[in-house]
Specification:
single chain; mainly alpha; 11 helices
Length: 286
């Protein structure tokens, strides 16, 4: 393949890879797994085990930032979590779509890379295929213009879709000059909804006035993470008896409040995965 043609070929493949294959970096649960284990140990022993990031209690209940989990507070949290949960679910959906897309795209890329070094000189596109060549060329120009407009409008989903359409037509135009590329099959478009899920943007931030009235920042941070423990443990936590000095301890009434909304809470796994956990009560300010 001549240098100029190879450069065009690699450009089309590289653009397709760069434009459609970026895998979002999802935050992990971090230390929550260890805290689930600690919660189980607390339930088994009934002791108030020390937990990283939580100061020793200073006497009166609430001095350590722990507030009771009640039905009203659980409902308040669910309302607050709704927007970010939808965002997190979209990111999880994109991750799943991306994995499936990469599996389908890999053979295509391997094929084009292999053939790019063995196809020789391009053929002259025959007269019978000139109409196709013109159609592909016009489509490339058309989608390039749409891509520019989408970029100016900040529409990430449209940018991804138009970029793929442009690159597909670049591939089909190139295939007219290098018929052997037919061995690689059709251009692998991403699945429906791929770019919509990808273009969710940053996680929603802030908390509602109702949350700010019901909690201090530290109380809310600990309250949120305690619910995270419950969700991560699939609700399989046991109540502890005696004074509660650790966030990883739950009273029977608290577990009852959580169990009452278990179906809704179990939908928040993606929500908790999307949070970068640092320590108990890591909400420093509103």
């Amino acid at each position: 393949m001549p240098r100029a043609a190879r450069r065009l070929f690699f450009l089309a493949v590289a653009l397709a890879g760069a434009g459609a294959l970026a895998t979002p970096a999802h935050a992990q649960f971090g230390g929550l797994g260890k805290k689930i284990k600690k919660a189980a140990e607390n339930a088994a022993t009934g002791k108030a085990a020390a937990t990283a990031g939580v100061p020793a209690p200073a006497g009166a209940a609430g001095d350590n930032g722990i507030v009771d989990i009640t039905p009203d507070r659980v409902s308040l949290f669910l309302a607050q979590a709704k927007e970010r949960a939808a965002w997190a679910e979209a990111r999880e959906k994109h991750a799943a779509l991306n994995r499936a897309y990469l599996d389908r795209r890999k053979p295509f890329e391997q094929c084009t890379q292999r053939l790019s070094t063995t196809m020789g000189a391009p053929r002259v596109i025959p007269e019978s295929e000139q109409d196709k060549a013109e159609k592909y060329s016009d489509a490339i120009t058309h989608y390039n213009e749409l891509l520019l407009k989408a970029s100016q409008a900040g529409n990430g989903a449209a940018q991804g879709a138009y970029s793929d359409s442009m690159q597909a037509n670049q591939f089909y135009l190139l295939r007219l000059s290098y018929p052997k590329l037919v061995e690689c099959g059709d251009y692998p478009y991403p699945p429906a909804g791929y770019y919509q899920a990808e273009s969710q943007g940053d996680a929603p931030g802030g908390v509602s006035p109702e949350i700010q009235q019901a909690f201090t920042p530290r109380q809310y941070g600990i309250f949120r993470e305690r619910i995270g423990l419950y969700v991560m443990a699939k609700g399989n936590l046991k109540a502890t008896s005696g004074p509660r000095n650790s966030p990883s301890q739950f009273s029977g009434d608290e577990l009852g409040a959580l169990d009452g909304r278990k179906q809704d809470l179990m939908k928040l796994e993606s929500y908790f995965k999307s949070i970068q956990w640092t320590s108990w009560g890591d909400v420093g300010e509103w």
